[in-house]
Amino acid sequence: MARTEPQINIRLPQDLKEAVQDMASDNKRSVNAEIVSVLLEAVRRHKHGDTPYSSGTLLWSQQFASQNEVIEEIAMRAAKNAVDLANKNNEKK
């Protein structure tokens, strides 16, 4: 991926950041590539109506069984926000 691609900044809890780093290491990818991979999967699920979690604020400890599910939920929300933002930008043109 080129460095000229659009960038976003996000804040993560330390334990989630470490979990993402562990996932990236396990999958032999950079952290950026891991996040992109998770986001692409979330977008694919969203497009096919295969979203396992509802939107809105979630009680993390009650809703998720693993760190991977937390990361997937964050990725799905980020992807949805990105798609919504892109759609709004396209409507303005």
UniProtKB/TrEMBL annotation:
Which BP terms from GO are recorded? regulation of DNA-templated transcription
Name this polypeptide is given: Arc-like DNA binding domain-containing protein
Per UniProt, residues of the Arc-like DNA binding domain are: 2-44
Q: Name one Pfam family in it.
A: Arc
Leader sequence residues: none
Q: Could you state a single Gene Ontology molecular function term?
A: sequence-specific DNA binding
Supply the source organism for this entry: Yersinia intermedia
Which InterPro entries does this chain map to?
Arc_DNA-bd_dom, Arc_rbn_hlx_hlx, Ribbon_hlx_hlx
